[in-house]
Amino acid sequence: MKLAQILTASGTFLFMLYVTWVFLKSDDYREFPVIQTKRHADIKHSYERLVFVGDVHGMYHKYEQLMEDKVKPDSNTTVVFLGDFISKGPNSNRLVEQIILNDDVGYDVKCVLGNNELRILYALLNPISLTKRKLIKIKFSSEDFLPDLPSINKNHRRLARELGWDNLARLAAKCGAMWELQDPLYDNFTLVAVHAGVLPDHLGNPPLKEITDMKYVDVNDHSHTTRQKFENATRWYHLWNPLDKKKYSIHNKIKVIYGHDSSKGLNIRPNTKGLDSACYNGNKLTALEYVWNHKTKEYNHIMHQISCQD
């Protein structure tokens, strides 16, 4: 390497160190929100529409098409994004700024964070690579968290820069890792919104790695969850279908609604509803709506889908 190249590389590295030092010392950094792991809201079943949307992955125009052509949300509608609503697709910025953080969008918006949102938050808090001892963790109300570091790529870092501190701080303050939507007038019927899934014995204190990244669980050790299959592993939703309510001390009707698992696609079971139907790969974008049926006195669910092929 020539001397000029060495000096240029050294200068760039020192500049990035300086930028990081200024960033870490800034008031903005100290004020980055602590993210609520679990959030709760009561359902007003007499009129509220609850619409859960699978992984959008920055496909803003497809999301808008789904809303305009199929869902047709009104002021009594709550739309819940099931994580991985940004990254990969071309319009993550528009989705965040014009829908999720827009108080005038015309309907209520809630969101859970998926593995891709967490990678982008990590990239924001760690703008250059640091030794593992000095990495800045994402602070949740239940634990400090580091995502899977090898999975963080240049796209996550680009989006962290483009979305910027203010938008991502507002996103962190608005979203949670899990939403519990409960109807106190209907035997505490509960809709649990989460990105990857949650085990029935972990509803009270869900581990972040589990609810943002899990696909498999060890049948003999529920603290062991992974994305990859391993010996003694089963898909996590098998613990819910059928559900042993006595074993897990569950007394009300619960439905877990999630995304994350495009390899399985639409995966509708009695107690779990998987809605990642691979829109980014050209398949479909799916929303599942829950609405109170005044005649039968129970909740009905309605599927909404559009094609993501151009």
UniProtKB/TrEMBL annotation:
Pfam families: Metallophos
UniProt-recorded name of the protein: KLLA0D19316p
GO annotations of cellular component type: cytoplasm
InterPro entries: Ap4A_hydrolase, Calcineurin-like_PHP, Metallo-depent_PP-like
Coiled coil feature spans: none
UniProt KW keywords: Membrane, Transmembrane, Transmembrane helix
One biological process term in Gene Ontology: polyphosphate catabolic process
Organism, as annotated: Kluyveromyces lactis (strain ATCC 8585 / CBS 2359 / DSM 70799 / NBRC 1267 / NRRL Y-1140 / WM37) (Yeast)
Regions that span the bilayer: 6-24
One example GO MF annotation: phosphatase activity
Domain called Calcineurin-like phosphoesterase: residue spans: 49-263
